[in-house]
Amino acid sequence: MEREKRNESDMSFSRKRSFTFGAYGGVDRFTCGDETRPETAEENLLDSPAGDRKPFLPASSNQRDTELFEIIEKLQGSRIDEQRCEFPLPLKSQLLTIGADLPLILPPKLGGYWVDPPLQRLVDVSPTSSHYGFVPECYDIMERDREAKIYHKFFHSRYHHSFTAVDPALGHLVLSVCLEEEESKLRVILRMKECSLHGAFSVSLFPNIPSAVELAKMLCDRVTVSKFEVVSYLKAPELITTFDEHRVSPNFKFGVLYQKDRQFNEEDILSNNEESEEFKELLSILGETIQLQGFTRFRGGLDVCHGQTGSEAVFTSFHGREIMFHVATKLPFTDGDPQQLQRKRHIGNDIVALVYQEGQSPFLSDVIKSHFLHCFLVVRRIKRAEDTREIAYQVSVTAREDVPPFGPVLPDPPIFTDRALLREFLLTKLINAEISCYKAQQFSRLELRTRSLLLESLHAELCTRSQCMMGDPSIASLPSSEGPRVVSEGSGGFIENFKRAIRVRSHSFETLGVPRRIGGSASQRPKTEKDGEGDRSPGPLPADSLGPSEIRDQASPQEDT
């Protein structure tokens, strides 16, 4: 009887051995430390049959228990702590000293970012140095697509022909041919899903004008089609121009972060509400503080009707371009939300952000977790010398390692004393940074997908309209409108172009009578977008038109933050 009671007692203890993964302190006192019950183990060993006896190894058991509790403690860590990046202690490194000051930027411990100027170059640089290299009065702004306007410049106002085909290997092709009699040139553009090829050939090289297939093969020897279809739609030049210039946008949006001294993590930086006079002065250099209510120019995704994204923002015009700044301190602040998602939903969806530092705390390159942010410009206000009141600004740049370098080049040392020159440099650097970020792997893959969808839509539109012009009875009459626009002017980014391309292709398939799968209830209908509303979020995309990687890449902005 006593033995059965002891067995029942042991079973009750084993049933109570459970662990809580949500908080510390859930340690089973019967299975760890010196509280292990060797006498119970000996009794069990004596009571068990001879064939089932196993040697008792208390040392290995304690070791396993210790390893188990180490795993449990790791699992008990907060998820938000796991998402934070660890800020290294920079004071132990001699490379991080710049005249007793810390650098503006520190690369992450695991790498993945480049910093300009590099830390090695900053060793012998003093903020009070009087040496300056050549600083130009203006800087060159990069063009995202240098050949985007060739069609509009050389073809649109001249008599020309366009052709379409579907190549087994290259996919949809759109060819445009123009004869420039005044210069005896034959100008050709071949549009493929990867890129557009442009060439100009002297007419004297050919005894007869080459065919469309021959011209296409002269530009790309991978073309295998044997026939092109002529485009007879009268307004085809407008559709082709829209496709060619879908990457060209005069609008940009950038984030602006305010980092105070001893702020090393994302939560602290995004929780700043008060703006110092020095920070306001930098904002005045970047642009003008405007009231969002009723604002009619490029708004960069901010609400100009209901005040849901704050009441103020910073806006400027720069060499024919409109720039909206998402200033963290001017976006809505949410009590009880350490991540400040109302702010991060805008700044986390920008590709480039500017960080203003107040104090000597460096900015860690990957401190802001975002799928979109690829580059940061960091600005710190410094004094030129102790005995003068001259104010200067020190600038540094960091970007992900797959972002190619971009201009303008930082002066040596990277210090500016002239406000106008600083504005010219910062705005040019921000624009060039975004254009350069598009060449990163994540964005280049998404751009290729966007271009492929837009080209497919253009091909379908040209074919359908041309057949209607020829009176093909198999094609139903189209609406009087000119069909869905490929992209609206000033869309503000290729991500919106990608979402719009999905909807345009779906609309084109419906025009051709091709069935399309729609997730959800049968009452759902594809939404159309009014012209001039390029900033409005178009909503989720149909998953059936994308592969797994594309669905992940084009996730909605709020999900990506």
UniProtKB/TrEMBL annotation:
<keyword id="KW-0343">GTPase activation</keyword>
<feature type="compositionally biased region" description="Basic and acidic residues">
    <location>
        <begin position="526"/>
        <end position="536"/>
    </location>
</feature>
<dbReference type="GO" id="GO:0005096">
    <property type="term" value="F:GTPase activator activity"/>
</dbReference>
<protein>
    <recommendedName>
        <fullName>Rap-GAP domain-containing protein</fullName>
    </recommendedName>
</protein>
<dbReference type="InterPro" id="IPR050989">
    <property type="entry name" value="Rap1_Ran_GAP"/>
</dbReference>
<dbReference type="GO" id="GO:0051056">
    <property type="term" value="P:regulation of small GTPase mediated signal transduction"/>
</dbReference>
<feature type="region of interest" description="Disordered">
    <location>
        <begin position="32"/>
        <end position="60"/>
    </location>
</feature>
<feature type="domain" description="Rap-GAP">
    <location>
        <begin position="240"/>
        <end position="458"/>
    </location>
</feature>
<dbReference type="GO" id="GO:0005737">
    <property type="term" value="C:cytoplasm"/>
</dbReference>
<dbReference type="InterPro" id="IPR003109">
    <property type="entry name" value="GoLoco_motif"/>
</dbReference>
<dbReference type="Pfam" id="PF02188">
    <property type="entry name" value="GoLoco"/>
</dbReference>
<dbReference type="InterPro" id="IPR035974">
    <property type="entry name" value="Rap/Ran-GAP_sf"/>
</dbReference>
<feature type="region of interest" description="Disordered">
    <location>
        <begin position="513"/>
        <end position="561"/>
    </location>
</feature>
<dbReference type="InterPro" id="IPR000331">
    <property type="entry name" value="Rap/Ran_GAP_dom"/>
</dbReference>
<dbReference type="Pfam" id="PF21022">
    <property type="entry name" value="Rap-GAP_dimer"/>
</dbReference>
<dbReference type="Pfam" id="PF02145">
    <property type="entry name" value="Rap_GAP"/>
</dbReference>
